[in-house]
Amino acid sequence: MEQLVKLPVRPAADSRNIIQGENYRITMLTEGLVRLEYSEDGIFEDRATQTVINRDFPAVDYQVKETPEELEILTWRFRLTYDKKEFNPRGLRIHVTGNTGSGNDVWHYGDPVHDLKGTARTLDTIDGACELGSGLVSRDGFTVLDDSASLILTEEGWVSPRKKGIKDIYFWGYGLDFLECLKDFYYLCGKTPMLPRYALGNWWSRYYEYTEESYLELMHRFDEEGIPFTVAVIDMDWHLVNIDPKYGTGWTGYTWNKEFFPDPKRFMDHLHERGMRVTLNVHPADGIRAHEEMYEAMARELGKDISREEPVSFEITNPAFLSAYFKYAHHPNEEKGVDFWWLDWQQGGITKMEGLDPLWMLNHFHFLDSARNGKRPMTFSRYAGPGSHRYPIGFSGDTVVTWESLRFQPYFTSTASNIGYGWWSHDIGGHMNGFKDDEMAGRWFQLGVFSPINRLHSTKNEFNGKEPWRYKQEIRSMMDEFLRLRHKLLPYLYTMNYRAHAQDIPLILPMYYKNARAQEAYQVPNEFYFGSQLIAAPITSPRLPSLNMAKEKVWLPEGVYVDFFRGVIYEGGRMMDMYRDIDTLPVFAEAGSIIPMTEEIDANSAAGNPASFILKAYAGADGSFTMYEDDNETCDYEKGICVTTRFDLQWENEQSFTIYPARGELSLIPAQRAYTIELYGCTESEVDCCLAGAAMEVQTSYDRSRNCLRIELPAVSVTEEISVSFRKKLTLAENNVEKLIYDFLDQAEIAFDIKTRIYKLVCSGRAPYIIIGELQCMGLSEDLVKCITEILTAK
């Protein structure tokens, strides 16, 4: 390449943090993170590696005690002792002393580490669970990241093998301070970049022989159904597949199939006019063969014998090939309309450079190349090891369509955050094999909405499409509503996108991140925090016969929580089985939460910043939320060019809800905005509303079935402050227990007399514990009793 695009790196450590001997070097990066190097020739590596790019942490507060035989280093987090010899279990020991939760808080060099796992390269062909790699956090309080085999990033921006025989290890001794550990990992290995806004909407993807006409017809049908999509994925049949066998297979290709797509630019222009972005699937492994349109120009530049149709082999270790690869195979298609590439590389991990994984190189250079012309860079590819969070988005591979695969994905997604990988995209609905099960597909759609990326996908099988109208009516209706919900959540999701970059907190976190000392937090692998305001526990098993309810084990930490879908109030601090019909899953907002949403959900609207919002707020505690917005497309967010709008709920004292003036680059948002405040979990009250101190007319209503006070505000200038106060002091509402149980019994397929007995008992006015005791003596199924119990004891 004439000039490589380079990743910004800061690999030199502060000299004040370095303790060095003849053959060892110890670098104190933080009070909990230490780099341990050993080299027989006493030469150490100061350049960036594939994994580690920034070592310029500020000076660390530590103490050193040294004798001729031993070195001791102390911080408030750990005590390290080292005999100054080649690393061995007897001579290198670290005792973690800060905020630990286990008696097993001592690490000797070479000890196995019992961490909480990270993620895996792919879920290809997985039916259920798979082995996961190591993560950064552990209940023992320490983990280890071995960077000894990582390649070096040269000053020229290329890669080179490391010297053999060295040891280069990062020890993480953060105790149970999991978020602090993760924050320092992002500093060491690079921040997660922001995604463009369109990536957070729904993606339509299918391995199928679409034509320009059939694809646009399908998009028109989605419009008619009111189902929004922001990303159009065109799988491999966009290019020539049925080629002359003398050139090999058609798996790799860069030449459009003009029989299917006569005018590729026209096709992509149509999709862009709809507000959608376009990605094409590529398998680069076979390089460029003589049947490709760009073959002659590329072969000539690389010195291939065109007369003999000498192929341009995929050689990622050759800078000249890499330059031509982008110049001839990718950039022309981007000029026609391709917004980003789906790098479906899966043909092994061997290159001519020892230790170099071609997947890592593809991710690295595609990401850097995609940033030219000021565009916000993005890739879509498989995970290539620690540090891959710098190149979102992750493609998790071709899973088998079974309940077992669905059941594994919530855990797989949240646990990936333990290695900083926050933007997984799964084949929602499953990819191949398996069987058709409408309920399973519907539950997978629900998981997709509460996933980092919501990409529907399936293999080339006429019976395996994910169009909602191909399912039973109750499932279809639910699928439609959840796909709309994903777009309604975009203001919240985009703010969490910024949080992931600015505050180093992934969208999805396991429950133990905020509850590290609670045993229950480790017992709900499929439950997770979905951003700062929500907890989700996706349903991953079929409904129970006769009850028409699916069951999921859920743990709510201490506090008051409100069901996102039903408005039911729950007292936290307990584990319980929860039961949900096909239209809902357990999703909760803690008291004081505020979630900005919008009804502007078509693709064109989703690409910009809305003019109207629904602010879902949850009674019971003070709360605040600052919504983030920018241009959604460029890297100007790195310069702080954005808009923030703060919303405050005051509950404890002078009860009010305040929308503060927008701050920042106001040209990025509409000059006026309309808000509807929905306050859940509260009693009814009339309200007073002020705009910049002057009274303003608003419309209010109260929904008793969902304990929701709704306040509709007219469109006003974004530079004005809006304050809503309540004429009557609000309190937490009481759940409408009798109605909730009646609705459940009404749909349950059990004996009428049993329904009557249960409902009469519920309406008796007796204490819940007495009702539950009588239910237990009626010979009812355990799940029927527990379903009633959940409602009776929610609050």
Instruction: Return the structural class.
Output: alpha+beta
Mean pLDDT: 96
How much helix is in the residues?
10-25%
Number of helices: 15
Outline the fold blueprint.
Layout: E1 18-20, E2 24-28, E3 33-38, E4 63-66, E5 71-74, E6 78-82, E7 92-96, E8 106-108, E9 143-146, E10 152-153, E11 159-160, E12 167-172, H1 178-189, E13 202-204, H2 212-225, E14 231-234, H3 264-273, E15 277-282, H4 295-301, H5 319-336, E16 340-343, H6 358-369, E17 380-381, E18 394-395, H7 403-415, E19 424-425, H8 438-449, E20 454-456, H9 473-488, H10 490-502, E21 508-510, E22 528-530, E23 534-536, E24 550-556, E25 560-563, E26 569-571, E27 574-580, E28 587-590, E29 594-597, H11 603-606, E30 612-618, E31 623-629, E32 643-650, E33 656-659, E34 663-664, E35 672-680, E36 687-691, E37 694-695, E38 699-703, E39 708-712, E40 716-717, E41 722-726, H12 737-747, H13 752-762, H14 768-776, H15 782-792
Parallel strand pairs: 13-14, 13-20, 14-15, 15-16, 16-17, 18-19, 30-35
Antiparallel strand pairs: 1-2, 2-3, 3-12, 4-5, 5-6, 6-7, 7-8, 9-12, 10-11, 21-22, 22-23, 23-28, 24-27, 25-26, 25-28, 29-30, 31-32, 32-33, 32-34, 33-41, 35-39, 35-40, 36-37, 36-41, 38-39
Helix pairs in contact: 8-9, 14-15
Q: What attributes characterize this protein structure?
A:
795 residues; alpha+beta; 7-stranded antiparallel beta sheet; 6-stranded parallel beta sheet; 15 helices; 22% helix
